[in-house]
Amino acid sequence: MLRPGGVLLVTVAAVAFVAAVDPNEQGHYPTCPFLALTGFQCPGCGSMRTVHALAHGHVQEAFGLNVLTVVMLPLLAVFWLRWARARALDRPTRTKAAHPALIWGLFGAIVVFWLVRNLPFGSFLAA
């Protein structure tokens, strides 16, 4: 349980830091390099502000900043729970995190989100 516990500890510390240090205020965090170089938003743009909003209980605001992050957080939690349970039961670590079709589906969803949020009709997805 050392590794899952370590990941949980680092995650809680990172969320606590983002909750305490507002990413909406300039100068606290660097600008997204992809955004700075291209002027387009990457799939993760708005994620820190989303985590900040969620940490303060502002779910609707979080959905408006980066819906992909809000949707992916429960999925990441499920993967972490599966991993922690396997470690707690001393089961061997699986060689695959998930079925390849799921992984490719998630990858495709991220790419589509990335493209659509940068098109005029998808501006509602831009943070």
UniProtKB/TrEMBL annotation:
The chain crosses the membrane at residues 63-85, 97-116. Keywords: Membrane, Signal, Transmembrane, Transmembrane helix. InterPro entries: DUF2752 (IPR021215). The keyword Signal applies. Residues 1-19 form the signal peptide. Coiled coil: none annotated. The keyword Metal-binding does not apply. This is DUF2752 domain-containing protein.
